[in-house]
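My hope is that you will study the protein record below before we discuss the fold together.
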Amino acid sequence: MEPGAAMAAPSSSPAQTSSWRLRIFTLLALCLVDGTYTVLRRYSRGVLMETYSFNEVLLVAEFLKLAVAVHMIRGSMMKERIEEPLSKRLVELIMKSRKMLVLALLYGAGNSLSYVALRRIGAGTFVIIAQTKTLATALFSSLILRRQYSWPKWRALILLVAGVVLFVLPTIDEGPIDQNSNDYETMLGILLEIVVVMISGFCSIYFEKVIKSDHEQIGIWERNFQLACWSIPSYLMLIQLREPRPDGYFANWTPLAIVLSLFGCSGGLLVALTIKYGDSVLKTLAISGSIIYAALFDQAFLGGPLTFEMGVSASVVIIAICNYTFDLSPDSATKWPSSAGPSTSTATIQSGEAGMNTSTTKKHENY
């Protein structure tokens, strides 16, 4: 055997190739699902003028994620020939779900603050600040996970944020702002949205740390079950407080609302898979790419705007995503503890996923 061939083999092992393909697959799947989700929302609300409660759509998506997670947990237990009753295992997971309770509370706080902020600042300002979630996620990744990103990756992230901002600005209608708003109120709105951005970045890294350095050896489907258990009450409370409906729950629902619930469920599960096989920053890259995809689809079929400047900005975003994803500069990788239970998570995932957020969530993407 040639010496060079012997040395080249380890760098392209089947396991590494499979992991890389899975990472790219989840990245593209999240981009397509999230983009299609956005287009369908626009078609439903902006074209068909449907009046169902969108918080109810998110609530149904959480119930669907709960059902998928339970199904995957059951399949994993059968595969591993675990004799423990499923109900007992689910109760144990709920009793150990304090980490996901923290995450659900943070998501709820972020959603509430974003509503308050949007009443005080224009949509353009809101969107510009919101796009810095990518940088906030990378910052918390460096602080909490001790990752050291190369300069080309930081440059790609900054370029990505700038490209997305320039792309979405022509599509934004500022909309009404509170007439009593003054400079103080505007500054308060900006500060609140910055807090929302920081909460979003922290939540992404917190979830990644939990699923990758978990001493309790709880798999990713089990973590999604825990998160859904706490997210459902928060959405019920949100609907009750913000959207009291005299005609009852699920009024004015349409087949498209059901489809949106399915896409919301798929997007949330794919967020978790993207974080599992990649990292939280890759998740934000996929969502940024979905903005471009959604806008192009919107222009082609729904008559949305598409200018030369938007085309240039879209190219910048695509180049930035490629620069980050395929950058070969050596980074300081996070060393996860051996007790994190990778075998548990991997076995759970491999037991039959068809395509899994953040929210989480998407929930991840509600704010």
About this structure: The chain has one domain: 25-365.
